[in-house]
Amino acid sequence: MDRHIVVIGAGYAGLAAATRAGRKQRVTLIAPEDRFLNRVRQHEVAAGHAEHRPTIAHVLRGRNVTHVQARATELDLAGRKVFTDGGRTPISYDTLVYALGSRTAFHSVPGAREHSYPMERAEELRDRLRRQDDAAVVVVGGGATGIELATELAEAYPERRVAIVDAGEVGGRYSAKGRALVHETLGRLGVEVHEHTEVTAVDDEGLTTASGRIEAGIVAWTASLEVGPLAAQSGLAVNEQGEALVDEYLRSVSHPDVYVVGDAAAVTLPGIGRLRKACATAQPMGWYVGRALARGGASKPYTYRYVVQCMSLGRNSGMVQVVGKDDAMTGRVFGGRTGRLIKAAIVRYVVLGLR
User: Which residues contact 61 (CB under 8 A, 6 or more apart)?
Assistant: First the structure.
């Protein structure tokens, strides 16, 4: 029986699912991009380095996957149809894989959306930096993405003032040894660190915070992520954050003919807890669902365990934080060139692993 699988979204989870299911099944991939975004390397793009974004056609080569370059705008879950922009004919499916991922969240901070650059707009940030070679830059968000961006920019533009701002602690999720390594690198590169500083507004001259003004000509926003509204609007069961609720096989609890993978899914596993949004969690979900669909269905519940968290700290340094299977920090940290090489190997494997 010829079953038609439709995958919406061409991120880490969506492409991984499409390429694996497409080995034995007929698949349609719906996504507006012609190139893979590769979010984990967007900080490098912002700093002006070469992009590592294969074309989607290259990733899909040799698979029974048709790429419809469009944006999914509506789901008819009862009729099993996907509507797209541009007035195209709805695409019918037997099984849907919902993999629309997440996007930068601005949390209704006045001016943040209008006056800052999220990592989805890394190319625009790169061009702005080149046009204004003397403008100070402030990065909002002290997690891995913000730290990677701040260190990359400080190294690429050593004469430029670069600052990083967080409502809590910069690198606060890491172990004491990991945080120390992060702060040592930020200090060495001359990055200003503003911790416990809540941003209350953004304008074209910088930030207003609960602690006062931080002037900057350019603002980058990496504070947190949120999912889009399509799952909730379409009638999939979701939590308060709009993330789709799934069962142990990553199927929607309300519509079992819909699998949800990646950042769009609310996945809680025994002994592990709630999976965080990351390519490290999204891509394995895509592998699992794609393989299951290639075989005609999942036979074993989805399992996962964490191993490391990693980040680059400029071109020649990095930090690899070893974690327990539940993502709890350990005291083992690899830094410097060793950390950078491990991180580089991981991100290279991410692209290879799409197939």
Answer: none
CB 292 within 8 A of CB 3: no
Of the residues 251, 274, 295, which one is the last residue of a structural domain?
A: 295
Q: Are strands 258-260 and 244-245 parallel, antiparallel or unpaired?
A: unpaired
Instruction: Please indicate, yes or no, whether the overall pTM of this predicted structure exceeds 0.90.
Output: yes
- Least Cα distance to 166 among 137, 193, 205 occurs for 193
Domain CATH for 340 = 3.50.50.100
Q: Could you report the per-residue pLDDT of 70-126, keeping only the tens digit for each?
A: 999 999 999 999 999 988 899 999 999 999 999 999 999 999 999 999 999 999 999
Is residue 282 within 8 A of residue 261, CB to CB? The reply is yes
Domain range for 316: 112-223+307-352
- φ, ψ at 276 (rounded to 5°): -85, 165
Q: Tell me if 292 sits within 8 A of 301, measured CB to CB.
A: no
CATH number at residue 62: 3.50.50.60
Q: For residue 80, count other CB atoms closer than 10 A to its CB.
A: 19
- The string of pLDDT tens digits covering residues 203-214 is 999 999 999 999
